[in-house]
Amino acid sequence: MNIKIRQESASDSAKVLEVVRLAFGRRVESQLVEKFRQNPNYVPELSLVAEYEGHVIGHILFFPIEVKVDDKALQTLVLAPLSVHPSYQRRSVGGELVKAGLAIVKRRGYPSVLVVGHPNYYPRFGFRRASEWGFHMKEADPPEAFMAIEFIEGGLKRCRESFYFPMELFKCTT
Asked: Residue 166 is part of a domain; what is its CATH number?
């Protein structure tokens, strides 16, 4: 399958939201994409689509966030969400989106990425349990679904006392 990975364009907006909704079978994740797009911290270069024969069949978004670690601010990205149209799942589309996205993240000098996702999927791209850095998220179920990857040594400082993840950014209606 010859897919093209490229930056999302304004004309892709409705197609992306449809792919996200179909991939998850509900609207919450597409609402999250729309919420991120409207946020002043949104970086268009970090929103990618997979295109096949002129159709958008997948999408990935990396969003910059600030987490508090022991009362200090830590700049990072969150991968949320990764979506592939159901007709194209299990054909490496998601993997190609993750690899292309992480290459851009690394090239742009971001120190790390956090993700809540399938604990058997993301490690193939270098993600490890966030607990290795002392990060825990009560909303992650199972706990090993909360993962991170570090591109700059020390990009994820070891958490000694407290960790705060900005969950309010991710709240959407059902």
From this structure: 3.40.630.30
